[in-house]
Each structure stands twice: as C-alpha cells, then as structure tokens.
Amino acid sequence: MMFCPTCNTECKNIEIITKEEVYPVRGDKIPVSAKVALCALCKTEVFDEELDEENLLTAYDEYRRRKGIVTIEDIVTLRARYGLSQRALSRLLGWSEATIYRYETGALPSEAHNYILKRLADPVEAKRLLEKARGRLTLREVKNLEQRISFMTREELPQQLTQILKESVDRSSLGIERGFCEFDPEKLIEMMIFFAEKLNGVFKTKLMKLLWYADFFCFKTSARSISGACYINLPFGPVPDNWQLLLGLGETAGAIVMQPVAGSDWEGEEIAASRLFRRELFTLPELEAMEKVAAYFKNWSAKQISELSHREEGYQKTGRGDIISYEYGLNFSLA
Ligand SMILES: [Zn+2]
C-alpha cells in the first residue's frame, strides 16, 4: 500500500501515468518517460518503489544506449555463444560470480568491466583470456570453451563477414552489371581458390583479371555470370567491386593466403590456396568457363594479361571507376 501525503492516509486506488522525468545516472542527466503513480482521489503523486525501480532500469538502458555499454541481453548472449555459466564466465574474467549476477539483473557495469565484456565478443580475445584463466576453470569448461572458440574463429567469423559484405553491396539489382546473377561472395572466393590451385599460386593482379575473364566468359557462353560480382574499371585493370575486402575475407575464411614476393626490380603479392577447391558449388558451364580461362592464361605473366584486359572493349569503353557491363563479355577476345 502507498501512502498519500495529501489525503494523509493509505491510498485505496492509484492511477499510473507516464511523465517525462530526468534521472541522474553516473552524473549524467538521462530523460525517461517515467511511470508515476497518482492517488486516484486527489491526483497527488505517491511513491511506488516498484515503479521507481522500473524507471531507473529504463534510465540505465538509455544511458547504455548513449554510452555504448553492454546490455543484460548482450551479456546473456555472450555467455550463450561461449556456452559459459555465470560462474564459468566470472572465473574466465577473474571477477566474483556476484558481479556477473548483478550485471545480468540490471546493474551498470563499470567502464573497465564494460570494455572487457565488449572485447570478449571477439573469440581471439576469449582465447587470450582462456590462456590466463586455465587454472581457474574445470577441465570440462576449458575443453568446451576451446571447442567453441575454434568453431567461431574458423566458421562463424567468416560467415559474419560474408553477411556484412552481402549487405554492403547493392543486391537489389540482378541486372546486366551482375551478369543476371545474385552476388555470391562465397563463390567468388572459391573461384580464387580454383585459380590459385590450378596455377600453383597466382599474383594478385593476375588473379583479378582471371576472375573477370571467367565471369565474363561464362556470361558469353551461358548468359549468366558465375559469381554475380560487379567489375569496376580501375587504372590497373578491371577488378571485382570490393576486391580488397574480398581478398581479406578469403584470407580470414582460411581459403587463401597472401604472401609478399619480390624480384630484383619488382614486388607483388602472390595468392595461394589454403584448402582444396570445392567443385560441387559450381555448375558445369561455370566449371568449363573457369577451366578454359585457367588453361588459356596459364603461362601468361601478370603484365601480359593486364595488357590484354586493357585492350578489351569493356575496359576501353567505360570510364575510370565505372561498372563494366557484362554486355561487353559478348565481344571478348577469348573464344
Ligand atoms: Zn490522495
């Protein structure tokens, strides 16, 4: 029961209204649409501990949003991803179990703790912490965590990157600039493995051209590209849009490795396959186009294939930075 100071008695009935209030959180003034109880009889505000607690949590949430502080859900999700109990997480971090419990019931993490919790989302950081906390965890906890981390660093991380990449490019159009295919970064990376494997390592500049020739040649023979990648006219030749991101993605996914190589008067980057090519991702016309391009350019230097690509109509007739339409594939010198 709440006490009404105006009626000077216990309130029999209350009303709950929403009112804009400002709550102080760690010295900041946080505006909150607060739930406030009124005495139904005289409309005086009466203090309700439960509502006040709820408003404070709302203020905390707003404060978290403004300051980039982890939410309760963030911590629970983090534990679920690593398969950790509250106890195991507290031991991994070297904190008391009560601390994790308080954070998961709404207490605001300190700045230092927030920083650590945010970094823990990265499995590489989890691995680093595990090395230090090994003695504090049970054998089963260590084994379980090791498995999760290994899974996340090998599989999940590239998946997330693929997702980012998929969302970063305009996929709304399946037009001629993509060769009537939806862009599939996974397939493009697999094509990199194919050429790196076939040619026993390939220079970065040469690889970019091989991808272009393969996608455009497949378009010429089957009216569809292989990867759906957009190719851009750059000073050093045609390249898939986001090519640097794609190479990085390929490396993170454990598909390719990039190694700097140097001769007496030149230097470049060679790309090698780090795993076997997965044939099953491709259709027969796609494989034929790739085989043809690989066989044709096998012994060409990066410079030679670059010069040829610069003479192609698709490169000649588009401006710097422009998308090269797959239409030009129909007039490719390669037949
Ligand atoms: Zn009253």
Brief rundown of the structure:
The chain is α+β, with helices and mostly antiparallel strands and 335 residues long. It contains 13 helices and ten strands. A hairpin with a 5-residue loop joins strand 4 and strand 5.
Characterization of the model:
28% of the residues are buried. The longest helix has 30 residues, at 139-168. This protein has 335 residues and is of the alpha+beta class. The protein has a three-stranded antiparallel beta sheet with strand order 3-4-5, with helices on one face. The chain has helices at 49-67, 72-82, 86-93, 97-104, 111-119, 123-133, 139-168, 185-198, 204-222, 243-252, 284-297, 302-311, 313-316; strands at residues 3-4, 9-10, 14-25, 28-39, 45-46, 202-203, 231-234, 237-240, 256-262, 267-273. The chain starts with a strand and ends in a 19-residue tail after the last helix. It contains 13 helices and ten strands. The chain folds into three domains: 14-67, Ubiquitin-like (UB roll), CATH 3.10.20; 72-165, no CATH class; 173-331, no CATH class. Helix 6 packs antiparallel against helix 7, helix 8 crosses helix 10 (243-252) and helix 9 crosses helix 12 (302-311). The structure holds zinc ion.
